Amino acid sequence: MEAEHPPLNKQNMITPWNRFKQAAHLGMPEQVPVALIVDSPWLPGYAGIDTLDYFLFSEQWLQINLGLLARFPDAVWIPGFWVEYGMAALPSAFGARIHFHHDRPPSIEPVTSDISHWADAPLPDVHEAGFMPLALRLYDHMESRLYPDGLGIKMVAARGPMVTAGFLMGITDLMMGLITHPTEINRLLDKITTTIIQWLRAQLDTLHEPEGIMLLDDVVGMVSLKHYQTLIAPHLQRIFNEFDGLVKIFHNDTPCVHLYGALAEANFDVFNFSHTADIGKVKASMGHRVALMGNVAPLDLGVRGTPQEVEQEALACLDKAAPGGGMILSFGGGVSPGTPPENIDALLRASRIWRTPSSSPTIKES
User: Fold this and answer.
1) Which of 366, 279, 265, 285 is nearest to 323 (CA)?
2) 365 located within any domain
3) Is 203 within the bounds of a domain?
4) Is 65 helix (H, G, I), strand (E, B) or coil?
């Protein structure tokens, strides 16, 4: 009589996603995971289609995203099967005018710089406002197709409070308002934060087994440490605190070395940051508190470099930050338009051949 085999434990299987989760929790899997943020700036060009078609024809969207899994089976795509309209979902819910283009993601026209307008602005209904209900419907439809084949969507995403506020009132007026009208700007950020939480929860509710969220906010990196701590940190912490138990990624690739130590306290698990920062120094300044996702230059190397140059830089990043765990190899930002697939192959090759140096530096917490 044959011995019975225990049921497969998907959580313990060696898969790119499980390697990613182990690294996100500061572990050191047997192979450093490669994870890449991909969305409408890169995918339509990669697939050779009109950007409008990528947004409009769901079957093309599906086949392109499925194709990534076949072409790069060892990569983790973040968030993966992302239903997005560029950065337009949140601003559209607050009434921003959106302009669509054939060859790039949508552009967004600010609503008004009048701070008094935002003081009285109602919270949008994430199930009815702007492009949000369309995105939720597509998530629901695609999850029902993907999940039976074991390809359920693992992660959802939202733009952060500062970048959304910048779209609504303009970056210059937002930055001036932080200084001249901090109370009113804080009220606006609070409204946006509430909407972000509701938006992320609405997306998660469409999925069978969600495991992560990603928040993207480059404008956070444009402020001083003082303004970050008093006006922004509470909103970021509030968002990330809402989703304990899930893997939480924060993307901010604006150079902001002065904020890295403070950002490490925001309660996210994975940090995707500027390629201009030395990954070894970032690990030293943030301590072993968050996993680092980077840090090969996305344009100078990812787009313009050769596969050999990408591989060499990837190995250098791994030497600096992979020992001790908490390392996810990536570009220092999203995958830039025009990135050739061969340069993604180079990242994957570097992760396969890298081995821990025999003498690894000790990382000291700041």
Assistant:
1) 279
2) no
3) yes
4) helix
Q: Which domain holds residue 256?
A: 16-353
Query: Looking at residue 251, which CATH number applies to its domain?
Result: 3.20.20.210
In a domain, 364, yes or no: no
285-to-23, 262, 364 alpha-carbon distances in Å: 18, 10, 8
This prediction has a pTM of 0.93
Strand pairing partners for 263? none
Number of compact structural domains in the chain: 1
Residue 7 lies in a domain: no
Q: Position of tokens 């993907």?
A: 146
> Please, are residues 92 and 131 in contact by the beta-carbon 8 Å criterion?
yes
**Could you read off the pLDDT of 115-137 as tens digits, one per residue?**
989 988 999 999 999 999 999 99
Burial class (CB in 10 A: 0-12, 13-18, 19+), 236: buried
What are φ and ψ of residue 50, in 5° steps?
A: -65, 135
CB neighbourhood size of 352 (10 A): 11
Quote the strand ranges of the chain, DSSP E: 34-37, 75-78, 97-99, 107-109, 155-159, 212-216, 247-252, 270-273, 291-296, 327-331
